Amino acid sequence: MNANWIKVFIAALFEVFWVIGLKHADDFWTWAGTVISIIISFYVMIMAGRQLPVGTVYAVFVGLGTAGTVIAEIILFGEPFKVSKSLLILLLLAGVIGLKLVTKDKIQEGADS
Prior knowledge:
The chain is mainly α. The chain has 4 helices and no strands. The chain has one domain. The protein is 78% helix and 0% strand. Helix 1 packs antiparallel against helix 2. The longest helix is centred in the middle third of the chain and has 24 residues. The two termini are 17 Å apart.
């Protein structure tokens, strides 16, 4: 895995933060954290999308963010655990991993190689 895929995972992590923030922010500092998370999330995703196929980057970003948000709500906010929900999240993650596995990284020639 190269640095660009790590950027996608970092962007997805910050997506979890801002999605939770949209639901639970209620004062200046939580809203500020939410806005900062949005900026970091999209900036890092855009940086990864410059080197990787944009469609795959976005699909992986959204899939990981969705799974992370559901897991965080179960662990942190007491959402009820449901086997059906867990199986569907696993199916989503299997699709995300499959997309990552079949996507070839661009090989750039020039100053960076």
